[in-house]
């Protein structure tokens, strides 16, 4: 038996659509695997009632297939599905790390990234790796078709999760098909600024590089109260605010001493919009951890 804690993640970080990701210290899924002749999946925890236990439909089923590693699998969800916090990816990442150990497949963490990404194709139609990479490797990650680079960065964050669901599949439908040269130049400048900020563990620089003129404005329209929550976070001292993943969670970066105030301001703004929400005061953290084997 192997048990793995796989962290929630925030993808895109504004300017790095489908490329940037970050592991969060909390929340997390806990995935337990045991060898079995046939694969079975049991799901408990947050939002378990919305998650299929059929291996064809659950993200971990694709990981079992890719590793040829049938197992009795228990997923204890800490990351709510359809949250923008890499819920589907956390289970896939945890299963990839756990099954690799259980069956002694000997794959490196980097080699497990494309395997876990197969799970993302099951739910969103695209095997994007920007959530599974940080959930496996930890830190700030840059993922391209050439592979993934991970950087340890100590950056305080707040993620505010409203009590509504947005599916990645739906949120990908509003992504514009083209961008202008002006938008391209602005995005490259911001993404480069953010990456330098991560390398320096500088929250102000990371925040300055989060702005994205192309995808985020379209996604923000799907989140009731987004503009007010964003403004409230900035008023409380956030250095940058954007949609987390495909939403509806909203991500704010700030200095440590501002985290509590930023979280309270975001919750108040959602409440003023008539929406219940919860805020996680978190930071960039480590990847999947083996708890027991
Ligand atoms: N193990 C799993 N954990 C969570 N959701 C799963 C799992 N397997 C299948 N799903 C399905 O995936 C969908 C949620 O994934 P989706 O990508 O939409 O949200 P997310 O992972 O929270 O968001 P994001 O990728 O934007 O961070 C739900 O329809 C859920 O039923
Ligand atoms: N990059 C993906 C992450 C969400 O799973 C998106 O924004 O659609």
Automatic annotation (TrEMBL):
Catalysed reaction, written as an equation: L-homoserine + ATP = O-phospho-L-homoserine + ADP + H(+)
Binding site for ATP: 80-90
Pfam name, any one: GHMP_kinases_N
Source taxon at top rank: Archaea
Every GHMP kinase C-terminal domain range: 196-268
Subcellular location: Cytoplasm
GO biological process terms held by the UniProt record: threonine biosynthetic process
GO molecular function, one term: ATP binding
Pathway info: Amino-acid biosynthesis; L-threonine biosynthesis; L-threonine from L-aspartate: step 4/5
Keyword Transferase: yes
A cellular component term, taken from the record's GO annotations: cytoplasm
Enzyme Commission no: 2.7.1.39
Residue ranges annotated for the GHMP kinase N-terminal domain, each copy included: 60-139
InterPro entries, sorted: GHMP_kinase_C_dom, GHMP_kinase_C_sf, GHMP_kinase_N_dom, Homoserine_kinase, Ribosomal_Su5_D2-typ_SF, Ribsml_uS5_D2-typ_fold_subgr
Record key words, sorted: Amino-acid biosynthesis, ATP-binding, Cytoplasm, Kinase, Nucleotide-binding, Threonine biosynthesis, Transferase
Function as written in the Swiss-Prot or TrEMBL entry: Catalyzes the ATP-dependent phosphorylation of L-homoserine to L-homoserine phosphate.
Sequence similarity: Belongs to the GHMP kinase family. Homoserine kinase subfamily.
Name of this protein: Homoserine kinase
Organism from which the protein derives: Halorubrum salipaludis
């Amino acid at each position: 038996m192997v048990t793995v804690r796989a962290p929630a993640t925030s993808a895109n970080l504004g300017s790095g659509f489908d490329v940037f990701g970050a592991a969060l210290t909390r929340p997390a899924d806990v995935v337990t695997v045991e060898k079995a002749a046939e694969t079975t999946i049991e799901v408990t925890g947050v939002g378990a009632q919305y998650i299929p236990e059929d291996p064809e439909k659950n993200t971990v089923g694709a990981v079992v297939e890719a590793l040829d590693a049938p197992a009795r699998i228990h997923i204890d969800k800490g990351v709510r599905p359809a949250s923008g916090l890499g819920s589907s990816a956390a289970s896939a990442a945890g299963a990839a790390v756990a099954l690799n150990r259980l069956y002694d497949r000997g794959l490196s963490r980097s080699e497990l990234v494309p395997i876990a990404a197969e799970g993302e194709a099951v739910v969103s139609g695209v095997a994007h790796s920007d959530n599974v990479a940080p959930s496996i490797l930890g830190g700030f990650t840059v993922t391209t078709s050439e592979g993934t680079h991970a950087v340890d960065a100590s950056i305080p964050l707040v993620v505010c999760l409203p009590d509504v669901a947005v599916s990645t599949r739906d949120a990908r439908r509003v992504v514009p098909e083209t961008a202008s040269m002006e938008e391209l130049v602005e995005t490259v400048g911001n993404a480069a600024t953010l990456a330098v900020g991560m390398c320096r563990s500088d929250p102000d620089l990371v925040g300055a590089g989060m702005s994205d003129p192309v995808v985020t404005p379209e996604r923000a329209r799907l989140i009731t109260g987004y503009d007010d929550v964003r403004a409230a976070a900035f008023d409380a001292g956030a250095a940058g605010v954007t949609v987390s993943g495909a939403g509806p969670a909203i991500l704010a970066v700030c200095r440590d001493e501002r985290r509590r105030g930023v979280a309270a301001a975001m919750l108040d703004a959602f409440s003023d919009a008539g929406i219940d929400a919860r805020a996680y005061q978190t930071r960039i953290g480590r990847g999947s951890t083996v708890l027991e084997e």
